[in-house]
Amino acid sequence: MDAAGNTPEYTVSELSSALKRSIEDQFGNVRLRGEISGWKVPASGHAYLTLKDDAACIDAVMWKGQRARLAFRPEDGMEVVAIGRLTTFPGRSKYQIIVESMELAGEGALLAMLEKRKVALAAEGLFDAARKKPIPYLPERIGVITSPTGAVIRDILHRLADRFPRDVLVWPVKVQGEGAAEAVAAAVAGFNALPDRPDVLIVARGGGSIEDLWAFNEEIVVRAVAASTIPVISAVGHETDTTLVDFAADLRAPTPTAAAELAVPVRAELVATTSSLAARLDGALAKAASARGERLSLWAARLPMPAAILALKAQRFDDMGERLPRALRAALNIWQGRYDRAAEPLRGAARGRFAEARQTLTMSASRLRPHLLANASRRAERRYSEATRLFQSLDPKEVLKRGYAIVSRPGGGIIKSAREARAETSLGLRFADDETPVPVLVGARKQKPKETGDDAPKQAKLF
Questions:
Q1: Are the CB atoms for 57 and 51 separated by under 8 Å?
Q2: Quick one: average pLDDT of 244-261?
């Protein structure tokens, strides 16, 4: 009888299902240590990778929900311990592990990877002291990037209120797990993009393990802090914790509370220091004034008395005062003599010319006749009267009294023709006693007035 006849027959699906059950029953929960290779996350959010060692490899998949709970960002080359269950993928006839959680395989491997990243970033100059910006002494506004819940933000706000109250802008972010690094980097860039930016930033998180703080070792956060134009104070973890953000920041604080202390001075101490400096300044000014007063007194003591300096000058002044009247009288006598000598010839000539002029005037007066002067006066009066009457007849006011009027524009200027009058909307009529406005009808501006028959008025037309 053929031996093959006793062998059970399976379909491909039946065999794949049997293998799947066998593997899952025997390896339902395993811890697998290996190095990550080919880590990728497609649009679905699930992660696909390969775990390998020196001799073998196994495919792995991590669903989106489990991946979001990771405390670090997996990368190729990391040595990890994956916890999950072994299963098969019948569609490709291969087995794989469904990873439910993952942790780094020892702190030593993680620190080695952190040191490697630190060296690479330092080589780019991101940690150079020359590029670090000074922290403002008394900022008007402080930006804080941290979790909105927990003790960190409360400690910072409380410490700022105690030391020197300032305006605080809080940008809430995740500080651990999937997406934390991206959120912190976006917050730093967001503060820098604000139109009314803070004067200083504090990036803060409480203490924890190296895995808990791993988001602040991510390259995206380090580059965002290094590129910030706003000075950054890092306050991640406790005093013994160190992250790469501490090297990229402009100032490192050992704790979040210490970051608040580094951001602002103590107001009471500042007031006391200012008062002390003011008192020292007043004392220094008083001391300097006293020293200069003493020096001035010493210099003044070495000078001679004012009376001694002025005595000789006063005596000379008195002597010149006594001599001045005599000198003036003598000079006056001299000039009087010169005047008399120069005026004597002029007096004689003047007396002769006066007598001659008087004789000429007497002879002219004898030739004048009174009736001739009277006739000339009457002729002058007659010409004056005629000129007065002519002026009065030409005076516009007198013309207006006879019934005439002056036509003018509203803004000023005399209307001299009917054509000019028709171009206006209103006119002014000036009579002898007053002026009155007169509207111009639209028809009157467009049509000329018509005269009919012999009974038309003979008075001169106004327009």
A1: yes
A2: 93
**Per-residue DSSP letter, 127:** T
Q: Residue 136: which of 265, 282, 324 has the closest Cα?
A: 265
CB neighbours of 113 closer than 8 A, spacing ≥ 6?
75, 77, 78
**241 within 8 A of 255, measured Cβ to Cβ:** no
- Tokens found for residue 205: 């998180």
Domain with CATH 2.40.50.140 in the chain: 9-105
Name residue 266's amino acid: V
DSSP state of 216: G
What is the length of the chain?
Answer: 463
Question: What is the DSSP secondary structure assignment for residue 132, as one 8-state letter?
Answer: P
Lowest mean pLDDT among 13-17, 41-45, 111-115, 172-176: 13-17
Q: Which residues pair with 86 in a beta bridge?
A: 97
What is the helix, strand, coil percentage profile of the chain, to 5?
50, 20, 30
- Considering the four listed CATH numbers 3.40.50.261, 3.40.190.10, 1.10.760.10, 3.40.50.150, the one that applies to the domain covering 113-128+139-268 is 3.40.50.261
